[in-house]
Amino acid sequence: MIEGLLIVLGPMFFGYLIKTTNRKWLNRINKAVMALLYLILLIMGLSLGQMDDLAVQLPIIALSAFTFISLILGLNLLALLIYDKISPRPLSHHSEQMPSRLRLMLDSLLMSSMVLLGFILGLFSKGHLNIPLNSSTYVLLALIFLIGIQLRNNGIALREVLFNKRGIYTAILVTASALLGGVLAAIILDLPISQGLAIASGIGWYSLSSVMINDAWGPVFGSIAFFNDLSREILSLFLVPFFMQQHRSTAVGITGATALDCTLPVIQRSGGMQVVPLAISYGFIINILVPILLVFFINL
């Protein structure tokens, strides 16, 4: 757990140490962040397409994953929308012109297309093209490093990032509603409650949840966890721009653990740098909770 947090936060802190007033370099960094995001999504699709025996249990996996993601994400959205209604924080005016919602949705479609493209390439290249070990991790390190530079040079205070009260409340609501969704999904699918809670505990961290649950209960449950958490990430590409303007906690909260890495550029692009402290604070807490919850419920 500590190693995983260091992998994410280390490059960010190093990037935060770099200060520059060169707008040309900052524009290049912004473009590099988007390029690295597309590359991560392509690698994610490739990995999915090259999974072994994907078609054998696909109907069971698909139905179970759909049940979990529908209930978990549905309850997440309900809890977060109520919170945004009780404590509204709409986006303030930006000095930079924000893209239209249609443009942001088209960007999300493009990012989802990268996953689909990677999946198709993975299917046809299986056995012929091997993805370099930890390749997505190295890309992620570079991405987080550049985001750290963006934070330092957009007037974001480190204290505001690490001690964001709204981020804490958002994390509590998402975790509680996700676990409730896991219990309901387990009841509907006639699974042990502990398995439902464990699958719900991934909250978008598919690379961790799928491995731990696979080791505990086999590849079928590992695959259910994988698709459940992967679906959150893919759906976030569309939902973040849709909710961001008036419901910032909802837009950030639905991304789960990926708020600290893969979907952070999507959050930043949709809401500007003013939303980044909330996203990082929320993502930081979720990334601490997920391994603890997984270990606890797997060993019940």
From TrEMBL:
Q: Where are the transmembrane segments?
A: 29-48, 60-83, 104-125, 131-149, 169-191, 275-298
Q: Name one Pfam family in it.
A: Lys_export
InterPro entries referenced in this protein's UniProt entry, alphabetically: LysO (IPR005642)
Going by the UniProt record, its keywords in alphabetical order are: Membrane, Transmembrane, Transmembrane helix
**GO molecular function of the protein, one example?**
L-lysine efflux transmembrane transporter activity
Q: An example Gene Ontology cellular component term from the record?
A: plasma membrane
PANTHER family membership? LYSINE EXPORTER LYSO
Protein name (database record):
Lysine exporter LysO family protein
User: What are the leading ranks of the lineage?
Assistant: Bacteria, Pseudomonadati, Pseudomonadota, Gammaproteobacteria, Pasteurellales
